[in-house]
Automatic annotation (TrEMBL):
It comes from the Bacteria. The lineage of its organism: Bacteria, Pseudomonadati, Pseudomonadota, Gammaproteobacteria, Vibrionales. Keywords: Membrane, Transmembrane, Transmembrane helix. GO terms for cellular component: plasma membrane. The keyword Zinc does not apply. Residues 37-262 form the Cytochrome c assembly protein domain. It holds the Pfam family Cytochrom_C_asm. This is Inner membrane protein YpjD. Signal peptide: none annotated. GO terms for biological process: cytochrome complex assembly.
Length: 264
């Protein structure tokens, strides 16, 4: 049953991507309703699959593949909602492809890492904050890449203005720093709850998560300070955003990847 749900979700994500790509390539209008309907059906199937993978049986199966699929769902959900207010067509194919690949792997390559968060609501809060902070700052990294691409095209005098599906450069920059500001606030809350609620946060095998997450927090804090006080823009912003997201990826998935995928 899970394989059928995963296949359906992947097909709907692919349909949304197939609706977007011609508009980007041929610089014609994109059928927003078709994309929204396809994405909504994909998200419904994705949520159904996650409920089966994570909540079936005793406890919660928070394996690395299930968590990656959950993050893909959160990012896709946020970006699909943003579709109605801003032109993010350049990013949606990347987001939907990431989600489709993750859910397919999670469905067809079952792994297990059983937890019992129902007995520890404080840890559940910490994990929820970690998931939302990582998802938000990953979206920020995507916006930073889009900002760098638009800036490159403009500097090379490429005619972007005639493409109705690409957002203005300054709008992307404003949205980027709003996202990073929200993500940094969530990351701050994640670190605080980790220090308070996770008793063995710096135990062997776990210390790197806190250290790398704190390093990412420093990078994002410096980036926000540099932008609002020094007027940082351009490539420096992109590299800072990507560096922060990379550190968080290593923090959240590094050791789990070795333990669950390589060693097992």
């Amino acid at each position: 049953m899970d394989s059928l749900i995963a296949t359906s979700a992947a097909i709907f994500y692919a349909l949304a991507i197939a609706t977007i790509i011609p508009g980007l390539v041929q610089q014609v209008g994109i059928r927003t309703k078709t994309v929204l309907i396809s994405a909504s059906l994909a998200l419904l199937c994705h949520a159904w699959l996650l409920s089966d993978l994570i909540l079936s049986g005793s406890g919660q199966n928070l394996s690395i593949l299930n968590v990656a699929s959950l993050i893909g769902f959160i990012i896709s959900l946020f970006m699909s909602a943003a579709m109605m207010k801003t032109r993010i067509w350049f990013l949606l194919p990347v987001v939907y492809s990431f989600a489709a690949i993750n859910l397919s792997v999670a469905a067809f390559v079952p792994t297990a890492f059983i937890t019992h968060l129902e007995h520890n609501p404080k840890l559940l809060l910490h994990i929820a904050l970690a998931l939302f902070s990582y998802s938000t700052l990953s979206i920020g990294a995507l916006y930073a890449i889009q900002l760098a691409w638009l800036d490159h095209k403009l500097k090379n005098k490429k005619a972007l203005g005639i493409n109705p599906n690409l957002p203005p450069l300054m709008m992307v920059e404003r949205q980027l720093f709003k996202i990073i500001l929200i993500g940094t606030a969530l990351l701050s809350a994640t670190l605080i709850t980790g220090f308070i609620f996770v008793e063995d946060m710096f135990a062997q095998g776990k210390a790197h998560k806190g250290i790398l997450s704190f390093m990412a927090w420093v990078i994002y804090s410096v980036l926000l300070w540099g932008h609002y006080h020094k007027g940082w823009r351009g490539k420096k912003v992109t590299w800072f955003a990507i560096a922060g997201a990379t550190l968080l990826t290593l923090a959240y998935f590094g050791s789990r990847f070795v333990q669950e995928i390589i060693l097992n």
